Amino acid sequence: MEGLILLWIVLLGACVGSFTNVVVWRLPRQESVVFPGSHCPKCGHSIRWYDNLPVLGWLLLRGRCRDCHARISWRYPAVEALSAGLWMTAVLVWPGAGAGLPDLWLPWAGLPLIALLLPLVLIDLDHLWLPEPLCRWGVVLGLFVSSVGGVSVLATHLIAAVLALLLLEGLSALAERLLGQPALGLGDAKLAALGGAWLGLGGIAAAMAIAIAAGAAVGGAARLSGHLGPREPFPFGPFIALGIWLVWLTGPLWWWSEWVMLLGG
Prior knowledge:
Blueprint (H helix, E strand, L loop, with lengths): L1 H25 L29 H5 L14 H16 L15 H22 L4 H15 L4 H29 L6 H39 L12 H14 L1 H11 L3
């Protein structure tokens, strides 16, 4: 029975990944993510349902449109497969993680969270932009899910969301005043607020520590290798999303204990 449930989670994750491709393509272009239905961007023909099966449809078509034979990017099945894999990791959430929610809720509560984080990451990578509607709905959904843990959990998550938003917006404004350009985009602050709504105070602090460490390592390597200019911006949203997801799966205490051990405490 557990294997069957896991299979359904993977299949649903792949289907959500297919919709994620639509969101990532259309939202930055201010197009409806619902109408019209899926169609080839080259010839405009509607995609048949059997050609729209996640991963499998692309393989059967050999990466080309059935009507005009234009190439279909490998990224479409890659995102579908990635979404399926991430949905599967949601089942691996540690008991006691998930920011104060009952353990019974944990595997299922993580599914809408990862469904929100993935399109935000991909859009930020493509456009250096984190859509406010996705972040805003992520905050609302996070607070709704947090309410299952009781009033105290909801209150701390609400405070965490507000503080994360204000702190990152304040740091960005301070950097702009001192350096002449913001250190973070305002979308990063909204994504941090989303994380606060899901993780609470300790959780979002741990997530941001992971994000800063990972972002500094990747950004530093990119600048040293010449792939990134001295003041060239790069997307920080993926690192925040990574921190949020890792802390959701394990809880913040494990990360803080590992950090103390690393420092030799």
